[in-house]
Amino acid sequence: MKYNNPVIKGFHPDPSVCKVGEDFYLVTSSFEYFPGIPIFHSRDLVNWEQIGHVLTRESQLPLKRVHSYTTSQGIYAPTIRHHDGRFYVIAMNVSNHKTFYVWSDQPNGPWSEPIIVEGLAGFDPSLFFDKDGKVYLTAGAFPGFGPEGIIQAELDIESGQLITESKFIWKGTGGSSPEGPHLYKINDWYYLLVAEGGTEYGHMVTVARSKNPYGPFESNPHNPILSNRSTKLPIQATGHADIVQACDGSWWSVFLGFRPVKSTKVHHLGRETNLAPVEWSEDNWPIIGNNGRAEIQHNGKSLPLGEPIPWQGKEEFDDESLTSVWNFYRNPQKGSWSLTIKQGSLTLYGQSSTLNDYESPAFVGRRQQHFNCEISTLMEFSPKEEGEEAGLTVFMNENHHYEVAKTMKQGKSIILFRRCVGSLWKVENETEYDESIVVFTIKATETDFTFSYTKTNGELEVIGSGETSLLSTQVAGGFTGLYFGLYATGNGKVSTSPAHFEYFHYLPGDE
């Protein structure tokens, strides 16, 4: 029986997986979105259900920017492991340059406060629990702190203190940016799995092995063991992998990859989570996928493939908390949102910050996970002060987003469509609109977004459109994917008028 990739669509990069009994748990990077580190559960490695987030409190995930050298900060490359009845997730928060781990007795939490690891000159940390009781922390070496490659040290898992100094253990195969390492003990060998080539079209997975956890490591003569570079396969930039053994003894790999828009080399959904089988050669080297290639469709072999998780595209905001598909952009400001002020609605109070700022805006969004889809929301909003604004956005980062919104301009209530692409910022269209209720709609195809609004009498008006390519990673930079977001702003001051969003509908189309 066959299955299709990606197994988790949309912006879900750097997957890491562990097995507990017959259950699998997976985490991915979340960068500057809060809550952080989405966690998923599966019984078959193909059908994944999000069961929450690992980092749900600001004390676990402070996202205030302390520098601005990249548009994607926050959580990079978490690793999940299970040992002696306890789950551990280790990661780096680039916003404060801290490497840390948290633990929990249950995968759905609550998770502990962060245990900070001091003195590690590395990134993309991973944990390995050896049978002799030693715990190894493996990471990519920070550029400028020595040779490029992989470092490792022993860790006291109770205190977070490094027991030994970091030791350089492998330089990789010569590809750029060796990163995302994972150490495993399989039979008599320690295997070191590494991502190389940068997280673009040259991305790949390489492996080395040794009889000792510190090496010397022997490089697989057939590296890379996974890469779709120099092909026209639908999934590109495959890499940053983790491997796991299923109950039947078969081996599998989760890894990131993106789907470029057909006939182009750009992508906007972000790097997604994919799955491929792992075979072992006669001389005990792993091979991922179809002889090192990742396909859109692979044979599930003996996996006990179950029914797909039902798509949850209709949000009525009736519960006391947001479901796990929703995120804020950075830590939400106090008083900026509520599910109780108006029953059955998400209420946003515009803050002084806008979608263009490095502070946290009043923003609640979910990932775009399909090229073709339709998004709609009913908003009740009566701006009273100049500049008060609320609406629906397609958001990549502060410098790249489109929105359809209602605002107050020169004493008049208007609906506008605006595009922000780098330093180019323009209101493309605006029209007077005096009613308090409006339905905003976005129709997405692989190449374009079309923005509309519907009046209370049911009349629909198209107000603008924008190319998906101008919000792509290749144009916007960073490491995330697109979000559909509900937002509000006072454009320099806190709004006096709340925006109530009664529902949010996400209807996937054909892929």
Q: How far is the first residue's CA from the last residue's CA?
A: 21 Å
Helical content band: under 10%
| Percent range for β-strand residues | over 45%
Radius of gyration (CA) equals 23 Å
Determine and state the CATH class of the largest domain: Mainly Beta
Q: Structural class of the secondary elements?
A: mainly beta
Number of helices: 1
The overall average pLDDT, rounded, is 96
Keywords: Glycosidase, Hydrolase
Family: Belongs to the glycosyl hydrolase 43 family.
Domain Beta-xylosidase C-terminal Concanavalin A-like: 314-506
Pfam family, one: GH43_C2
Write the layout of secondary structure elements.
Layout: E1 2-4, E2 16-20, E3 23-27, E4 33-34, E5 36-42, E6 49-55, E7 75-83, E8 86-93, E9 98-104, E10 115-117, E11 122-129, E12 135-141, E13 150-154, E14 167-170, E15 179-186, E16 189-196, E17 204-210, E18 218-219, E19 236-245, E20 251-258, E21 272-280, E22 286-288, E23 297-299, E24 314-315, E25 328-329, E26 337-338, E27 346-348, E28 362-367, E29 373-380, E30 389-397, E31 400-409, E32 412-421, E33 424-432, E34 437-444, E35 448-454, E36 460-467, H1 473-476, E37 483-489, E38 499-508
